[in-house]
Description:
There is one protein chain. The protein is an alpha+beta fold. The chain is built from 7 helices and 22 strands. The radius of gyration is 20 Å and the shape is globular. The two termini are 24 Å apart. Mean pLDDT is 86; it is low at 1-34, 36-54 and 385-399.
Amino acid sequence: MKLAMRAAAAALAVTMLAGCGFLPAGSGASDSSAPASASQPEESQPATPTPEPHAASTEMPLPDAGISPLTGRATAFSGQRPVAVMVSNQAAAWPQWGIGTADLLIEANTGGETTSLMAVFESWEEVVKVGPVCQGRDLFLQLMMPLNAVPMYIDSDIYTSNLVNWYTYQPLDGIYIGVNAYNLDKERDITAPQELCWYADARLIQSALASYGQTTEGDTPTLFYFDEAAVPDNTNGWRLEIGYGAQRTAQLVYGPDEDRYFLKENDQDQLDAAKEDGLVRYSNVLLLMASAGFKDDGVTRDYDLSGGDGLYLTGGGAVQIKWQKGEADQPLQLFDAEGQPFSVRPGRTYIGVWGGFEGQSLRLLDQNGAEQSLPAAPAPMAAASDADAETSAAASAAG
Length: 399
């Protein structure tokens, strides 16, 4: 499936105005929906100018044959679209299923004091059991749409609905596709709210897509440039603590024996109930720092995805980077301090999106537990001007 290009008006898609009227009848904005049936300013110049990254291009190259676009490793799934599943991260949803086997795990605060996750797999065949599936959020989709991924979620807020409608991008939303794409964990259903019991199932994905005239096959650009030598020459990245809100601090702790970063909270392992050893660990950790504010509902977090500073951790080391993206259908791209394209080590990756707003925190420790310097927190996103509001209102009316 090719993304619809909206050159002049694409900025509107990023704003996701609630008034565009794209929300289908019967779709709510609650996080607790079970699937329905199938019928359903000028700065002083530094003495030495800081290099600016090259302009982000509109696409990333396709990987070499037999190489995964998500991990840079050999794969048997060439020619398959990735599958991106929204996963609840509230405490009542623990332990989740599938977060320890995902090729890519994305985490961000899109409202409240906790986070949501997106578990991304290079093929539908890897989605053995993933969930509990939660509400779709446009921030996550904007990172996955350039990869031609299949989004999976149950219900969505209006911003997500506007996004997929504007770009004519087809998700598998449990509100409409229901049990044709999602299964209920009957054991958990005995003790937990039913909205925390639904999971994505590989056995259903192909037929669910086919019902929309879609397929699991397609070209997938590479997520990153990969390089086995992309390991920082330091031990400054032994532990990264990302405070997303009062109810969530993700700890990425390096385990030298396995050369992986373990995902923890309160120094306790975050577990995957569908994985034999239960542990969630990744080769790479990528922190994207983005200016943040609120969308027009005053509740949903908004992020400026045009670019910003960041951190990259692998092999116990850390390096500060810059990143760029742009519109919803443009790819994420990484750059080094000199503005040159930045490569990451092949392997599975955790990505955190962090706005630095009130209630959030960040701490980086080296091998000896000493705190390390960090890029400055991003400035808050500027509030829309009256002129912007008028333009938005007009666009909403037209939408």
